[in-house]
Design goal:
alpha+beta, ten-stranded antiparallel β-barrel
Length: 194
């Protein structure tokens, strides 16, 4: 009985000492204070469902110092897939520099809470490597490393100026690891009313 009593007292004192130790007490409190809710972005692209009058400005020769832009006008259609956790984007536009047709597939990853933006054009039918990112404070930024004219660059696609009836997308390249960016593709969207 004496032995059991000593074990009980030892266990009680050990437990109290553990909880009372200032370092351990602060370590236990820190995770609860540091935990922040993860933002669920699975409906971030809901603003873009529908049919859009689309104006495109394209820098003719990116990363060469060129300042020559070409313009296109056309229509984009964005369809909801998987209740908004994905969408299919179709673009058709024409201008003095020619005709463009492309398709984009946007996919939401519920584990990372990020989107991947995948793109293919009708010229080669090849899906590019995805730009991956998320929306914060009304702006979506998506990044990728890709090959451009034989060299590795960073690519950024950004959605901004989002309203119920308009938005803007810009693509930019960086050849210096993200220190500077050159915008080379601008799309403005104006909703086509039913």
């Amino acid at each position: 009985m004496n032995r059991l009593r000593r074990i009980g007292i030892f266990s009680l004192l050990f437990g109290l000492g553990y909880l009372a130790h200032p370092f351990l007490a602060s370590a236990q409190a820190a995770p609860a204070a540091a935990i922040q809710p993860v933002r669920d972005g699975q409906h971030d692209f809901d603003f873009h469902f529908g049919t859009w009058k689309t104006h495109i400005s394209r820098l003719q020769h990116p990363l060469t110092g060129s300042t020559t832009w070409v313009e296109y006008a056309g229509v984009s259609v964005v369809r909801k897939v998987w209740d908004g956790r994905a969408s299919l984007f179709e673009l058709e536009a024409s201008g003095p520099a020619g005709h463009l047709e492309g398709a984009g597939l946007r996919l939401y990853n519920p584990e990372s809470h990020q989107w991947s933006l995948n793109w293919a054009n009708s010229t080669d039918g090849v899906m590019t490597s995805p730009n991956v990112g998320e929306f914060k404070d009304g702006r979506g930024d998506f990044f990728d490393q890709e090959d451009f004219n034989g060299r590795a660059i960073l690519a950024r696609g950004s959605f901004s100026d989002i309203t119920p009836d308009s938005s803007k997308f810009e693509q930019a390249f960086s050849a210096d690891g993200g220190k500077t960016w050159e915008v080379n593709w601008i799309m403005t969207f104006t909703r086509v009313k039913d």
